[in-house]
Backbone:
């Protein structure tokens, strides 16, 4: 009895062990030659194009598009696995200025420059230069922008007026903090700032603040290599302290759980008076069904020691080198990010003209219907994108590839995620700034140039 | 002639032919299972062995680099890693707290459900519902509809009672996840305990009643000892399930101090942004060893239980 049980146990244990340890799976491939697999992020604009693809693209070309729609975090895991580790699952992936130059340099993405320039319908020269440059390295375009954004400050004109304050067009963080504390009340918080862990959430907002306060994650060594971690410097501490104090004094409720979507809800619900976030939010605030439509003012991203501090981001489409259908993939990209789609989408999508993908092409802003629908935010958006200090975001040189709200090195994803978890805990009122900075410094120090 | 002989053989098999010397009775029974076992070994043990190999290398996907042999280095850094140690501590708390509370609550509900009353079937179904929901849905419901300090039910009640709302998930992540796990796992414990209660011999209970024993005395001295093996089984199964909780952590907090447990930590070190496959393999091997220890203990206890049943 005892013995038999023992052998059964050994087998069970082995099976359990195997199941736990079995980790990586292989990718699939599609045998249908007239279809491509595309991974996109679950933002409203992407959902629109997924809906319009059969009628606007498949009908004309006969190419079927299989979409995989993922949230930002999952998309990053999937694309990194697919592109960097050679997963061979997708023919087109959606990435941004953080990934495109890195993957491009590593040689895992198809260089789109030639295809884009020779495709007359695509109008390569029409792409907004700041966005195009952010997605290129060494003059080679590795991803075609689907939409582009910077960050700016949105505020309720009526609320500020009632409090007797005016917001300058180019505010400093000290001015913004003073106004936030002044308009803050028990019914309406002064400002909404991201506090949710994640390098693309809290990490993005906080890094633009760090930059303009003269702080940096790492010093830069020779040739842009990663130098010493700078998290334990006074400048970093000041910036973080400022950010945390502002949230504690005049920030939104449950800040440690809030990012873009949570702040959008609170702002449109009238629960916050100001909001520092992506310019793309303006299209939601000015939408025809928005309760705060027409009540908003827009100011440049607040600064402290630098001239401008807004970030630069773009969701863009790229082709992994492992794809066997590069021609079909380009046809799709040319359709999705070309000028024709922008014109066709305006009258077809539920959000109307104001909701078409912004910030990629100069011609978008010359469409009369769009100029009218987006009158409140089109100019601030374009100016913010142009002003984003992507090559020189702070007061000291940065390691790695260009970037504002991130550091252009592959390890930033990991360091940013882990450190923002520490900082988010401080925002939630758990743990001290000292221990968070100490932990983060040790995390950042593990990165070697 | 030959066929006839074969047919006769098939109809009247001689035991000697089917029992070749050297192959014991038990092996003859196992023989047909071997192909399945082989597939099982290929599917589970080959990846495991590869994981062991990966855990001895320095392999990171981002930035891409050559896979270098580093021996036991990954294991050495593991135990000096304070983040891993705190993940272990979170794992321990996220296992022990829900296991104990769901067992106590499950027993209480089972005792209530064990008596007949109007609408018992409906109540029982309602009580089981949490167990039927997907963990991700459970996490989202509790995070947004219960704990949220602007829109959550709990804070609405606190507000009505004159208190100040509290963002439970960010202030007390471990307890927020633990409470959700208790809610989700209580029905399972309840079912186990209910089965135990309903298997209780009625004549003994009646005898106790005739002897004038109080309800509490009967429960404490007869029901509790009878339920003990069921409770132990609940604790063991609960531990094995709860030690691998990942979905609730991912949905409710997305990790962080006080909520990153070992499975989430392994995820973060591998495809969750760390891309250190070598290091992550080492972590998962350690988890496997820990699981083997727990599984061994569990199975020992379980075999003891079964023996106890036989004696009884």
Residues:
């Amino acid at each position: 009895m005892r013995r038999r049980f023992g052998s059964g146990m050994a087998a069970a244990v082995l099976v359990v062990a195997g199941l736990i340890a079995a980790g990586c799976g292989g990718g699939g491939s599609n045998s249908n030659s007239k279809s491509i697999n595309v991974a996109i992020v679950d933002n409203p604009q992407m959902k629109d194009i997924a809906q319009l693809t059969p009628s606007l693209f498949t009908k004309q070309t006969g190419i079927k598009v299989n979409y995989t729609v993922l949230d930002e975090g999952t998309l990053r895991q999937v694309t990194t696995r697919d592109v960097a580790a050679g997963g061979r699952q997708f023919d087109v992936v959606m990435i941004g200025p953080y990934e495109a130059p890195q993957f491009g340099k590593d040689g895992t993405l198809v260089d789109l420059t030639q295809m884009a320039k020779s495709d007359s319908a695509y109008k390569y020269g029409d792409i907004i230069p700041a966005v195009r440059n952010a997605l290129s390295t060494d003059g080679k375009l590795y991803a075609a922008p689907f939409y582009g954004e910077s960050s700016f400050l949105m505020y309720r004109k009526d609320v500020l007026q009632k409090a007797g304050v005016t917001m300058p067009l180019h505010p400093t963080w000290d001015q913004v903090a003073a106004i936030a504390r002044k308009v803050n009340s028990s019914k309406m918080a002064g400002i909404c700032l991201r506090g949710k862990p994640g390098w693309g959430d809290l990490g993005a907002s906080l890094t633009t603040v760090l930059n303009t306060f003269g702080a940096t994650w790492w010093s830069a060594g020779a040739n842009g290599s990663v130098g010493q971690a700078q998290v334990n410097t006074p400048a970093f501490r000041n910036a973080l302290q400022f950010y945390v104090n502002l949230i504690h004094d005049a920030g939104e409720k449950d800040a440690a759980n809030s990012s873009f979507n949570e702040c959008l809800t609170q702002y449109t619900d009238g629960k916050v008076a100001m909001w520092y976030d992506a310019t793309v939010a303006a299209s939601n605030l000015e939408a025809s069904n928005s309760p705060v439509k027409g009540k908003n003012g827009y100011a440049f991203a607040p600064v402290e020691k630098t001239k401008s501090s807004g970030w630069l981001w773009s969701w863009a489409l790229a082709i992994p080198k492992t794809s066997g259908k590069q021609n079909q993939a380009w046809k799709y990209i040319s359709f999705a990010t070309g000028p024709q789609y922008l014109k066709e989408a305006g009258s077809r999508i539920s959000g109307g003209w104001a909701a078409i993908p912004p910030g990629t092409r100069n011609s978008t802003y010359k469409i009369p219907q769009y100029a009218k629908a987006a009158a409140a935010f089109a100019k601030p958006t374009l100016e913010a994108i142009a002003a984003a200090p992507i090559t020189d975001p702070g007061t000291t040189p940065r390691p790695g590839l260009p970037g504002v709200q991130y550091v252009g090195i592959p390890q930033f994803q990991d360091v940013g995620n882990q450190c923002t978890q520490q900082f988010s805990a401080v925002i939630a009122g758990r743990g001290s700034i000292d221990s968070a900075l100490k932990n983060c410094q040790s995390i950042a120090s593990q990165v070697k140039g | 002639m030959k066929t006839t002989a074969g047919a006769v053989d098939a109809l009247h098999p001689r035991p000697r032919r089917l029992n070749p010397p050297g192959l014991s009775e038990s092996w003859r029974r196992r023989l047909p299972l071997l192909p399945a076992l082989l597939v099982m070994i290929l599917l589970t043990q080959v990846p495991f062995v590869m994981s062991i190999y990966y855990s001895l290398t320095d392999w990171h996907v981002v930035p891409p680099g050559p896979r270098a042999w580093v021996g036991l280095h990954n294991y050495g850094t593991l135990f000096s890693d304070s983040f891993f140690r705190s993940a272990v501590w979170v794992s321990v708390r996220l296992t022990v707290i829900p296991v104990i509370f769901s067992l106590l609550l499950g027993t209480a509900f089972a005792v209530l459900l064990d008596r007949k009353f109007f609408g018992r079937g409906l109540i029982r179904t309602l009580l089981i519902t949490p167990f039927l929901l997907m963990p991700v849905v459970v996490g989202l419901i509790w995070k947004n509809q219960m704990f949220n300090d602007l829109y959550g039910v709990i804070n609405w009640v606190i507000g009505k009672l004159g208190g100040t709302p509290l963002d439970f998930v960010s202030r007390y992540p471990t307890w927020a996840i633990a409470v959700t796990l208790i809610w989700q796992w209580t029905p399972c414990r309840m079912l186990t305990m209910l089965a135990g209660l309903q298997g209780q011999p009625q004549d003994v209970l009646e005898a106790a009643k005739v002897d004038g024993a109080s309800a509490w005395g009967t429960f404490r001295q007869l029901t509790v000892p009878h339920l003990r093996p069921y409770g132990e089984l609940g604790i063991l199964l609960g531990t094995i399930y709860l030690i691998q909780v990942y979905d609730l952590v991912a949905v409710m907090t997305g990790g962080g101090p006080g909520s990153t447990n070992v499975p989430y930590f392994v995820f973060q070190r591998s495809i969750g942004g760390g891309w250190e496959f070598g290091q992550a393999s080492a972590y998962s091997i350690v988890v496997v060893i820990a699981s083997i220890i727990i599984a061994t203990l569990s199975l020992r206890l379980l075999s003891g239980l079964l023996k106890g049943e036989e004696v009884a």
